[in-house]
Amino acid sequence: MDADQELKEQLIAGVDGAFELLVHAYQHRLYAFALSLSGNTADAEEVAQDAFLRAYRALRGYGEERIRELRLSAWLHRVTLNVVRNRVRRRRLRVLPLESAPEPIDRAIGPEAQVERRAVMLELANLVSGLPEHHRNAVVLRCVQGLTYAEAARVLEQPEGTVKANVHRGLVALRRRAGVLSEVS
């Protein structure tokens, strides 16, 4: 039995007793996803907390069969995406995707190379933030969060082909914009 299956069985036995395990299993991934969409650590923390609260409330109302059928990762990413969308609508936040986790210090390369790498990551984050929302969400889920196309399709509630097209179009737009920027620099 895989970890998600085991976790679902524990949730069926009792949401209150198993919810902490769910949080531990997904907290870093959901925080990184929220951070990649919001660009702000404080907002990302609030979004992740709100997403877990919503997930807890939903799970308490789900029956055994519904919990068994859940694809936990896709479902939790969808809940998180909805929380971000609600906050953006309410507060008109500027959405800025960032890398999913702080970069570890690489002792194999020098400080100048690390600064240059960080600058490239920030430039890429700014490029991604300029994508239309449907392209940005697909690119972040697939390329930053590492979800499969099928998982991203479930999160976005779109056909898998649409997600593939949006990722492709988003990456083409990023390459085009990056090429323009490198010509200007």
Gap between N and C termini, in Å? 53 Å
Strand proportion, as a percent range, falls in: under 5%
User: In which range does the helix fraction lie?
Assistant: over 70%
Low-confidence stretches: 92-103
Which sheet architecture does the biggest sheet show?
A: none
Radius of gyration: 18 Å
Q: What spatial form do the alpha-carbon principal axes imply?
A: globular
Give the topology string: H per helix, E per strand.
HHHHHHHHH
Please describe the structure with a list of short key phrases separated by commas or semicolons.
185 residues; mainly alpha; 9 helices
Q: What would your notes on this structure say?
A:
This protein is mainly α. It is built from nine helices and no strands. α3 (41-61) packs across α5 (72-91). The radius of gyration is 18 Å and the shape is globular. Mean pLDDT is 83; it is low at 92-103.
